[in-house]
Amino acid sequence: MLIVFKCSIYKKMARINWSFFIGSAAFLFFVYVECKEKSTFPKTLKDIEKLVELEKIKNKIRGNIQQIKENKSIVEPVPTTVLPSPRPVLIISERADRNDCMIFHLKNGNVVVEEAPSQVDLWVYIKESKKKKKKESKRNTTEKNKGRRLKLIVTYEEQKLSTLIVRVQKSMWHKIEMPISVIQNVFQTPNKTLNLCITCKGCNKRYKALLLHNDNSNNTKRKNRAKPKISDTNRLWPFLVLHIKSQ
């Protein structure tokens, strides 16, 4: 009887242990499935990088919110001040005693320059005279292809101010930069008058610098022609451009 009783007890305990093992295994499997479905762990390297960037953005937003709560002033970049560009003033030349000289009045009519400029440019128009087609020499053909080399020398009171060397192929304007020191000295004079002379080395009948008296040099050939308008002649005369700093 005792042996039969012990065997029945062992069988009941074995059943209880086996059912407990099966229940535990089922519970663990259920937990594993739930964790796998709800898992937020990244699977690839790109997912990790996205999480890092999102974390940085979150931290930045939290920092800004905390800064606003603490009433701290947010530092903003100071806008840079835009300096005004120099204001150009144009002065047309006038006739002088010599054919190669011209006068610029810095105080004449509507043009009033009260302060010395930061930059001065002299503009001279070089014209190419077109001739009828004929047999050209080798020198003329090379001159036509490469252009003619000219040298413009600007003087003031027999003092050399500036020189420009150009190779001219067609009619166009050319800029000559002038020294500011001479212009500043002119501003100290009461009349504020600048007398400049231009010498063109290399100019000929085909290429020449248009000064004030060039158009009227051959009056005998133009007796029967109508006189040109003042606006037509002035537009090709040399002129000065003064760059004055705006206040």
Can you tell me about this structure?
By secondary structure, the chain is an alpha+beta fold. It has two domains: 41-76; 87-131 and 138-216 and 231-244, no CATH class. Helix content is 34%, strand content 29%. The strands form three sheets. Strands 1, 6, 9, 11 and 12 form a five-stranded antiparallel sheet that branches. A five-stranded antiparallel sheet has the order 2-3-10-7-8. It has a two-stranded antiparallel ribbon with strand order 4-5. It is elongated, with a radius of gyration of 47 Å. The model is unreliable at 1-7, 37-42, 215-223 and 227-232 (pLDDT under 50).
List the helices and strands and how they pair.
Layout: H1 2-37, H2 45-69, E1 87-92, E2 94-95, E3 101-105, E4 107-108, E5 111-112, E6 119-128, H3 138-146, E7 148-156, E8 159-168, E9 172-178, H4 180-187, E10 193-201, E11 207-209, H5 230-234, E12 239-244
Antiparallel strand pairs: 1-12, 2-3, 3-10, 4-5, 6-9, 6-11, 6-12, 7-8, 7-10
Q: What is the compact description of this entry?
A:
The protein has 5 helices and 12 strands.
